[in-house]
Amino acid sequence: MANFLANVFGASPVKPLQQHMDKVCACVSELTPFFKATFAQNWDEVQKLRSSISQLEREADDLKKEIRLQLPKGIMLPVSRRDLLEVLTMQDKIANKAKDISGIILGRRMQFPDVVMENYAAFVSRCIDATLQAQTAINELDELVQTGFRGKEVELVESMILKLDDIEQDTDSLQVDIRYALFEIEKELPPVDVMFLYKVIDGTGEVADLAQRVGSRLQLMLAR
């Protein structure tokens, strides 16, 4: 009977999703020392941090695959299987983006102009804040399930998502400032370097965009 009930109700999918987000946040958080080492042109340290980011991204990817394989397909899941898979995919893209950014920078041994570096640490920090805020919201999923997606818990998570939106708007503002600072001097730089600088700036901003999308997916779950 116990096995029958387990097959019908399935193991809770919430905890693995939260564990995956923990790994994603660990990966993205490495961007702070990574950019610090990049700005200092300390390429040995950049290499070490790139390896750490890649390893954490692989671990997140392994968790993603395991969750997809083991996620119950029965009708008794507390939340939609499709919703969970969409959140999982969006979380995974955050780690992928951190890996992409670090790979470009290390591969080209990029140098950032002073006007770009001026606000970049704050930009990276705020993008990480967005990911951590998305994690905070995802960590409330088990409570949402227990309360049947009703009551004060829903209000709490909605407030977390609103805060996430505010953080993402902060990153947009910082990104606009950094892009403008680069635009002002781009004629003084090799065109290929400029192209990759814009690519990294946009990729960094996408970390926050993807974190916001995790919140948006969670918000859709609240509405159903």
What do these coordinates show?
With 224 residues, this protein is mostly helical. The chain has nine helices and no strands. The N terminus is likely disordered. Helix 2 runs antiparallel to helix 4. The protein has one domain: Methane Monooxygenase Hydroxylase, Chain G, domain 1 (Up-down Bundle), CATH 1.20.58.220.
Short description:
This protein is mostly helical and 224 residues long.
CATH-defined superfamily? Phosphate transport system protein phou homolog 2, domain 2
Q: Would you tell me the structural class of the helices and strands?
A: mainly alpha
Mean pLDDT: 91
The secondary-structure element order is HHHHHHHHH
Percent of residues in beta strands? Answer: under 5%
Number of helices: 9
**Sheet of most strands:** none
CATH class: Mainly Alpha
First-residue to last-residue Cα separation: 31 Å
Low-confidence stretches: 1-10
**CATH architecture assignment name:** Up-down Bundle
Please bin the fraction of helical residues: over 70%
Count of discrete structural domains = 1
How much is the radius of gyration in Å? 20 Å
Question: What is the fold named in CATH at topology level?
Answer: Methane Monooxygenase Hydroxylase, Chain G, domain 1
